[in-house]
Amino acid sequence: YGEITIPEIDAKWLGRWEDTPRTFQSPSTSTKPPYYVLSMFPYPSGTLHMGHLRVYTISDVVARYKHMKGFNVLHPMGWDSFGLPAENAAIERGVDPAEWTDQNIETMKTQLKRMGARFDWSRELRTSSPDFYSGTQKLFLELYKEGLAYRAPALVNWDPVDQTVLANEQVAKDGTSWRSGAKVEQKYLEQWFFKITRNAPFLRHSLESLRGKWPDYVIRQQENWIGESSGSRVKFPLRIADADGSSHEDALKIYTTRLDTIFGVQFLALSVTHPLVQKFSETDPELKAFVDNIPNLPVGTKAGYLLSNVKAFNPILQETAEDGTLLPAGNFDLPVFVAPYVLGGLGTSAVMGVPAHDQRDFDFWQENCPEQPVRFVIVQQGAKDRMVEPRVVTSTTNKIFAPGITKSFLNENCGQYAGLNCVVAHQQLFATLKERGMALPSKRFRIRDWLISRQRFWGTPIPIVHCGSCGSVPVKDEDLPVLLPKITLTGKGGSPLKQAEEWVKTTCPKCGNPAERDTDTMDTFVDSSWYFIRFGMDPDPKHNLMPVDIYIGGVEHAILHLLYARFISNFLEKRTGDSRYLEPFRRLITQGMVHGKTYQDPQTGKFLKPDEVDVIEGGPAFDKNTFVEVDITYEKMSKSKYNGVDPTECLNKHGLDATRAHILFQAPVADILDWDEAKIVGMQRWLAKVRTLAARAEVEVEFHRTTGSYSKAIVAEDSDQAASDLMRELQSAVAGVTSSMEDVYSLNTAISDLNILTNYIHGITPELVGPEVYVLAVETLLKLMSPICPAISAECWEHMHGPRSLLEEQKWPEEEQFEVKEVKDSVDIIVHVNGKYKLTLRDQAIGWADEYDVQEWVYDKVLETEEGDRLLSEREVKNVIIVRAKNL
Ligand code: ANZ
Ligand code: ZN
């Protein structure tokens, strides 16, 4: 029995699982409740890394556990296979991106299988296969029909030498192109967007339903990204001078969260994309030049363009006549600027400028009107120098006053509101302006629409045709998918798809005239925003397997991927009315990173390879060449630090069970895991111990098999107590491991519990507890460890129960199964005198410490009673015989 080696066990069970794939049963044929376990699918970069091994170990443990709990488990796997690296490989080495991708997938699939994960490969998908991306294109068109996909100009990175758009990842830190080395420019291009802002209120408020089920920090990050703020929209009357010398009035809506500062408004500013700017620039070539030049200005520029034909009026200065009517706007004296610091698509794309109390406005004011005073309108409680009159702030006194709202008050510049607390003033000002029809409450979200256009090749083509007479026309459903053409990628000269001239040429689906295909592809986040829905599709349309019951993945996706997935899922909920799409991930588990052991020379900063150092176990390490003691740290694995670990190597060396257990044991799921391979021996010792116990149990099972009964004869006298202690131990192990499995985050403690149980069983014998109970204990241990160490436990089980009984098909143990027998802690004392029954003392709490006290204790007990006292004092007692019941 002990002969089979770890590599043999691995090979045997990997083969077994390969031959008996566990595929998800459609709910129409299965009576078990469905359970959908999903781990974030990998990008097929070519090799599996330790982060993958960690996340897929976790999801496999959950899937195997849920299977034993009686669920019909869906545990699929696929590939996020569009994206830049394939395209870069194609440009640099001339390989076909599709081939490159498929090869990587093959390698990684083999590596993935090596860890013993029970994935349902029958549902495998890859986002770069036409099969999948035709679905992505359908999704695009549905969004398009709902007005949720639209085109607008946006800035892109432009390589002026290669004449091509660059992804952010292709721009080096110093702002140069990855290939040509040219200084990257910014350029406006027509881009496709998804209107995620329309769903912002839902995406924000529905987060509440995820509290307690998603990590708090993920919810917080989503909240911040969506960024809800409440403020007001305020109308400022405008007077616009026309070319013919006359003028007309108009109004401009701004968005502010600080209405209490309205007396401090000194200018208005419009974003470049504001409709008024578009309109004015048609007749104002100088303005047009200013707008066109903006991409060349540095980030955060405070440049501005004064619209000399426009003046604005502060609506709070408007007066009410005696009869209650509103007098016309008075002095139009506020300048109006076009300013890139005002963002388009945010709020109303226009702001009221309050230089005294907003840093951005102050900077702008100093830059554009340096001679003008700054008008303060708010003082802080207890502030000594109340700044009453407008005061000149020179560029050297860069101290502006940005008070918090609750402890501040309006100053003498605020007319009848002077002296009011800002919060109160805010309410009153709002009420006044609202009554005049000049203000409305408004919510604003910081989130921007999702720019999905990429001028790249290796992505889903956008299924739109541009026609000279019909404009943008969607490709007809029956013509999907729009397949990617085969082309040679050069990395030069514009969009790769633009160069596929034959492919670009098509006919308009509407009018049939010659037209051109859209040459953009979609952001790969679009693929991953719905792949879990594709996995969850059941052949029987009655059974939509959404939502995902538990989603496991890396912290790096805490914001964008999850937000986009929620957006798309929620869109489908609205469109189909199927509430199961509402929130796609019922529970979210985020796992920490895996860090590698890193050796670095403290003086030179040089990183050393593991074979360049001498490591003293548990102690310092020395450079083999220089004998300098090197620093040992754990850091993010990277090639340059020589601290990477190859999961396959590790699995081959230590076996899949020890590797999986080690990964889980070294750190709680959410924490950073410092990968120290030396410590894996701890797991190996544990597993060896388990095998010894299993061998013992096997002997008992064998005995039972051949004789039909367990060998009762050898049971020790105090076996009831020992068995009952063991039962209690089993009960607590089942409770502990089960709760870690449910919690997931504490899987490391499941392994501690399993170790404790193993050691406990190791400390007893079949003789002590009885063979039947001993076997039960070992069986329970094997079941409990089977999700984590599936191969060794299955092997041990097979030895005990033969090849037809599969451990993974056993029921998960329940606490109630382990009945702890009451061992008596009181006795009845039955008193005979001269062979005749005299009396019984019931339920006497046991009070002797050892064998020698019993006689004395019984004698005292009898004497304590009246009748006993009488009986014993009536005659001379010559001899006391204690007859003990068998189990005392
Ligand atoms: C006047 C004011 C005075 C403002 C003051 C702030 C402080 P949050 O809180 O982040 O939502 N704003 C509004 N729309 C903008 C846009 N499209 N681009 C750039 N800035 C914009 O920010 C709300 C504040 O951001 C608004 O309140 C507005 O400036 C500015 F002492 O109005 B505030
Ligand atoms: Zn047409």
Describe this structure in words.
With 888 residues, the protein is of the alpha+beta class. Among the domains are: 228-445, Isoleucyl-tRNA Synthetase, domain 2 (Alpha-Beta Complex); 680-817, Isoleucyl-tRNA Synthetase, Domain 1 (Orthogonal Bundle); 826-874, no CATH class. It is built from 25 helices and 33 strands. Strands 8, 9, 10, 11, 12, 13 and 16 form a seven-stranded mixed sheet that branches. Strands 26, 27, 28, 29, 30 and 31 form a six-stranded mixed sheet that branches. The chain has a four-stranded parallel sheet with strand order 2-1-24-25, with helices on one face. α18 crosses α22 (771-785). It starts with 5 loop residues before the first helix and ends in a 14-residue tail after the last helix.
